[in-house]
Task: structure prediction
Amino acid sequence: MSRLGELLDKGDELIITGEAPVIDGGTLKDYEAKLAELAPWCDAMNATDNTAAHAHASNVAMAIAMQRVGVEPILQVVCRDKNRIAQQADIMGVALHGVENICCLTGDDVTAGDEPEARRVFDLDGPQLVRLANSLKEGRYLSGRKIDPAPSLVIGAVENPATHPLDYRAQRAAKKILAGARFLQLQICYHPERLEAFVAALHANGFTDKCAILPTVVAVKGPGPLRFMDSSVPGISVPVETIARVADADDSAEEAYQLVLEQCQHALALPGVRGLHLTDFRKDGSISRLCADLGIRPRSERESRANDFALAN
Amino acid sequence: MKIIAAIEHVIKKPIWDCQMCGQCVLHDTGMTCPMTCPKTLRNGPCGGVREDGHCEVKPEMRCVWVKAEDRSRNLPLLPTVWREHFNNLRPPVDNRLKGDSSWKNAISGRDKETPPGWTPATEAPEAEAKA
Result:
């Protein structure tokens, strides 16, 4: 089973996932270099599926590339570009290469990307895709056709705790958990009280025992990316005071770092949160500093410590 | 049978902007047609809803699911059972039914048919029999 799957089975240890950078050209060596900063800290990393509706090397290809360079992938599957037949083929295709972690998303619309004239698909939606992945795991295509042996899959999904309808978001997350999601990577949330309410609602109803909640934190270097996310990424809003705090600081990069650190500390302190999903926009070595400040050890050390503990018991 | 579909379209198009998917779920979604969502989502709002509650794709339009969620709670005279169905996991659309009368398909039960792999093995009748 995947490392992520083992951690989910254990039910208590910290889980760190990361957003792997996309690649648009070059070789496997170039890709490995792109992964190098974040990978040592992550239990698994997302092989993204044409992020923000921009074409890149495919999710399937990146997931297989990660396997080859020793990084555990999470195949992200969105509903925008492919119908249910192609989605099943992708999941079964990576399973053939030993990829087990699958993260199911509805996905941004084509209008979010640089080819807004493209046809949007959305044959399935996010919750339906979770159920479909679960069917594959049980050894059946959606048609009922048998898969023998059934692929070993670790299924997850995403949810946005920060947008409307706010009171309904936890219920939508619960729908995905009931459909088979065992981990939930949350969209970046710049409203701490919204994240708190969302996690509290899942925790109070026992869903955090069934599913690992992993809030996303984006390591930004200044006010630019905050303004960009606020104005150009639907579903993300950044309060003006948060942007001002970073923009008005003498050292914006340091203030942005402190903001990110506070977001991580806040998320990890919430009952029901199992870990973090890290995205690195800084690319200046800050992830190592962040993990050190949070007391998070590199994956290799966490792994060996867990093994020592298991042997001792 | 085309006449039934035509009548249905004439009634439901002006009121709900019915898209004639042939498998109507209006009653479960606060009398708001999910097929008018640009992504045709059947299971709630995507993560792209804007801070003002408007649509990611059409910023001038209130999110169909924000509207549906609001109505499923607040619309007067909506039977409680319909309100309770709001968060049900609705199956994928059967694209063969597009243009068909959903009334006809509701009476025949055709609109409830799902692919065999949709129902989890743990919930399937044979699994229950084994248990």
Observations:
- The interface with chain A takes residues 38-51, 53, 56-57, 63, 65-66, 69-70, 87, 89-93, 95, 115-118, 120-122 of chain B (CB under 8 Å).
- The helical segments of chain B are 2-16, 64-74, 80-84, 102-108, 125-130.
- The radius of gyration of chain B is 16 Å.
- Residues 2-130 of chain B form one domain.
